[in-house]
Each structure stands twice: as structure tokens, then as C-alpha cells.
Design brief:
Blueprint: E1 7-10, H1 13-19, E2 29-32, H2 35-47, H3 50-63, H4 69-87, H5 91-108
Length: 110
């Protein structure tokens, strides 16, 4: 999806729950269970106009930002922050300073 490929995936937990889901109201792929549904999805992809294909690929690509390293780190530290605040104190403030430091280092090419 990050490469702009239209996903055709099994209609089960991961893909249905948080991977092949609409993004900003736009379809990002197809979910299937049976061989017939997979065949129908392939047919639907092949029948898309170039504009429709591009729109779906753009939505799919944009939807993958939620899986970036930065999004993962933000969610991970956000979940741990209350525990770390209790154990270390001022964790959120320290984490914010570290995050700003990482951004500065990237900007400087370090």
C-alpha cells in the first residue's frame, strides 16, 4: 500500500481491523474471503479507470502513515507516559525534549 499498490487481502482480523480500511472516506483496497470474492476483487481492480486507480492508490499510500516509526513511537510512549511519569517524573516533558532533539538532528543531517 505504501508503494501505491491496491491491496486485495483476506477479510480477517488484521487487514479488516486496521490495514485495508477507508482513509479520509476513500477506499484503500478490497477484502475477500472466498475464491469468488478474490476473483471479483481482481476484476474490479482491472476495471478501474486510471483516475480511480490513482485515487485509491493515493488513499492507500496516505493511510500507511499511521504505521511510520514516528507514529509507532508516539503511540508507544504515549501509552507508557503515565507509568513513566509515576516512576521517573516529568516523563512527558523529557520525551518532548528528546523528540525535538531527534528532529533537530535529522534537520542537521546527523
Amino acid at each position: 500500500m505504501a508503494a501505491g499498490v491496491i491491496a486485495i487481502a483476506h477479510n480477517s482480523a488484521g487487514p479488516r481491523g486496521d490495514i485495508v480500511v477507508p482513509h479520509a472516506g476513500a477506499q484503500t483496497g478490497f477484502l475477500c474471503t472466498t475464491a469468488e470474492e478474490y476473483a471479483d476483487a481482481l476484476e474490479a481492480v482491472f476495471a478501474l479507470t486510471p483516475q480511480q486507480r490513482s485515487s485509491m492508490a493515493t488513499a492507500a499510500r496516505a493511510s500507511t502513515a499511521r504505521f511510520s516509526d514516528e507514529a509507532f513511537a508516539d503511540a508507544f510512549y504515549g501509552g507508557l507516559a503515565p507509568v513513566l511519569d509515576a516512576a521517573v517524573g516529568n516523563w512527558r516533558e523529557r520525551q518532548g525534549k528528546m523528540k525535538r532533539g531527534r528532529k533537530d538532528a535529522r534537520a542537521e543531517g546527523r
